[in-house]
Amino acid sequence: MSETLQTTDAASDADLLAQTAIAVRAAGSALRERFGEVVRYQTREELMRALAANDDTALDILRPRLTSLRPDAGWVGDELAGGALPPGEWWVVDPAEGNVNHLHALPEWAVTTTLVRDNQPVLTAVHLPLTGETYTALTGAGAHLDGRPLHVSPSTDLGLSIVATSQARPDEDEKVVRRVGSSITAMLFDALVVRTVVPATLHLLNVAAGRIDAFWQFAGARADLLPGALLVTEAGGQISDAEGRPWTPQSESLLAAAPGVHAQAVATLSR
């Protein structure tokens, strides 16, 4: 009986993922139409209005579609929030991940949607409108790029690895900012190449696809980390906090790496 229920649930989640991917592609198309010219702003208020305009453009498409797919699921309205969610199902959405890049006509931005069930990510879809790529993952069913399976890097030597991190937010606690800086310095000694750009999700996509070997971040929001954490896990990667302990949305750091360099990355970040 339980096996039948599990099979039915898996099939239902697979169908739900397919519909979620359609929704993020539609939202991405709307954001792509707004992309190309640098949006100028002189004050923090002007910046926030420009960011909100992009968010609203995508949310006007995502919210009704996702609500119709899962009417009883909660909706996380603040993509910058962190920590655990109440029990049940929740849509965790970043309608314009890398929104500041979009405003500056830079290509590193995406639309992400993740369904979380009892604080575990079940499925995720991440769409990159400028390339047309859609990354998806379903718990127990693997990670894919436009239907092709993803696999993390086979690298076993951090000294030959490309690693990446994302900078702290402008209003981040000073202790976190300094920890980010010291971790970059440590990795500059131990890794082959260190990349430091935003947003986090795109680095995690690259870990899942085997293009880079490790990504770490201190602090961070659910919407930044949950999609990529599921993609990396389903692509065969290893997820922990920066000290090697099990990662949860409440953790103060995240490390996603190919299994062959995970322990080396932990050692570097723990110095």
Automatic annotation (TrEMBL):
<dbReference type="InterPro" id="IPR000760">
    <property type="entry name" value="Inositol_monophosphatase-like"/>
</dbReference>
<protein>
    <submittedName>
        <fullName>Inositol phosphatase</fullName>
    </submittedName>
</protein>
<dbReference type="Pfam" id="PF00459">
    <property type="entry name" value="Inositol_P"/>
</dbReference>
